[in-house]
Each structure stands twice: as structure tokens, then as C-alpha cells.
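## retry 2 of 3
previous attempt timed out at serialization; input unchanged, resubmitting
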Amino acid sequence: MIEIGSLARNLATAGAIAAAGLCAGAAPALADYPEKPIKLLIGFDPGGGADTLARTIGKYATQYLGADFDYAYKPGASGTIAINEMLKNNDPDGYALAVAILPHQIIPTQMGDIGYGVSDVNWLVQIAQIPNGVYVAADSPYQTLQDLIDDAKANPGKIIDALPGVQSPNYLLHRAFEDAAGIDLAEVHYSSGSEMYKALLGGETKVMITNTGFAVQQPDETRFLAVASEERYPLTPDTPTFREGGLDLVSTSIRGIAAPAGMPDEVVAHLAAGFEKLVADPGFVEDIAKAGLVVEFMGPEKTNAAVNGFIASNKAVFEELKAAGN
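## retry succeeded, writing output
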């Protein structure tokens, strides 16, 4: 049986898990940080959720961080290319950061050598959490999650689910949903959320598992059957949780900012304080709500602790995926 150790479930104990070593380092302190623009690496294609988050933060960066952002796109490999670029080609001085989309950028570290380990990164701040869920097209005959489950039981292996790669929270939710509901869904994997969306609307697939963004931004084209959050998500209040349907499934992802481990304490403190003020700006809160995000801020210690807790609670899942050659 596969169970999802959700990032959300690790928040309650985040403060109890040591992460202090990630927030301090040996790099020399900078007297007047920041003195120039900050490079912000984006590990996903332009126009997607990571890009939207980065650009939205950028609108407020000068006011709260004291510097503009220079954006650099390094898409691919679930965002890990951008993390590697940040670590290998930049000093840990606060002038190179990356958009953190988790657990996408941490699951691959548990599958093999990808160029960095979790402890090489200071998962600096969480800006928001976004839950995953199950979609069908607006014209689908499935009106409820139970309708989908009933049809899947009657037609095992015939209902196609649109997914990204197996090293993603979407895939973990897919597997957990199958297990909890006692069903078998076929899988087709796509390289981006937009491709998954097109496949669903075009009839190539009947189901799509991804985050709540489409339900907020294109509510008339899809039907959001269930959301994998502890309680109903504020931006999709009409969508029931899996728990309301009798399935104890929670799957959330973090949206935040990553930095190299080893930055000076003063730089970490400046960035953490600046981001905390930035995300409290009413304009920022309104802007990211349009992208399907609700502000849920955590600083460096709790964010790093949540990452470590997620890894610890999913060890069995990672071992199963590795044994299957994924």
C-alpha cells in the first residue's frame, strides 16, 4: 500500500526537526546586501505556474527585498536543472535564488544522483501551499468522484489518467487514489501541465490529476471532482475533499524560494524577513489568488524541516519506486 506523506502533514512538527545547519554557512558576510539585482532561476517553462509566481514576486521585490530580479529559465527534469544551475554556477552570496516547486525538486534526490542533495539547498521560504486533485472535462459524464470510481471498477485499466512523470506528487496521488478506492487507472504521461490539460479537453484522457490552478483559472472547461487537502480549499470552495468521499488522501505542494546552503546569516535573515513582508502585501495576496494560490508563509527553519519530514515519511514510497526502476 502506498500512502502519501504530505508536506502539509509535516507542518505541525516542522519546528521540532533540526534544520539550523542549512541556514548558516561559511561564505563571508556582505556589508550592504543587496547591491545589485538578484538572479531568480525558474526551472519550468515560461507561462506556467512557476513563472507566474516568479513574476508576481518580482512586482514587489524592490520594495521588500531591496533589489530587482533578473529572471533566468532553466526548464526540465522537474525543476532540478535550475537548482543545479543555482548551486554549481553561482556563489552562495544571495545573488542567485531559484523558484522552489516542492516536492518536485526533492523527490528526484531520493531516486539517485541528480547533482545535488537536499542538504545542499536552503529551502528558504514557503510562500504558499497548493493541493492536488482529480479533474475531468466539463462535459464528462462523471458528476462526482464516486461516479468515476464506479466506472473505474466496472472497467479496470480502461480509464486513462493524464499525469506528469512518476517522480511527481501527481503520480504519488494517482497511486494512492488507486489503492484507496480499489481501482486501476491507465496512465499516460505528459511533459507539462498544459499538455495534460489539452489531452483532457481533447478526449485523449478522461481524468487528470494536478493542482488546483486549472480549477481557479479555467473553471468552465473542467470539473474538479475532489481536492486532496485537509479541508476544502478556499479558492475552490464547492469542491469536496477526498475525505468527504471516504478516502483519507492529502497531497499538497509547496511554492517558495530556494537558495544555496552556506549563505551568510545576515543574507538569510534579510531575505526571510523581506519575503515575509512581501507576501503580506494585500496586492500580492490578490495577485497570486488569481493563479490559484493562497499565501501560507513559513521561514527557513520550518520550510527545511517540512522538506525533511516529507522525505522521512515517504521512504517506503521512494524505495518502491526505485525497485520498479523509476
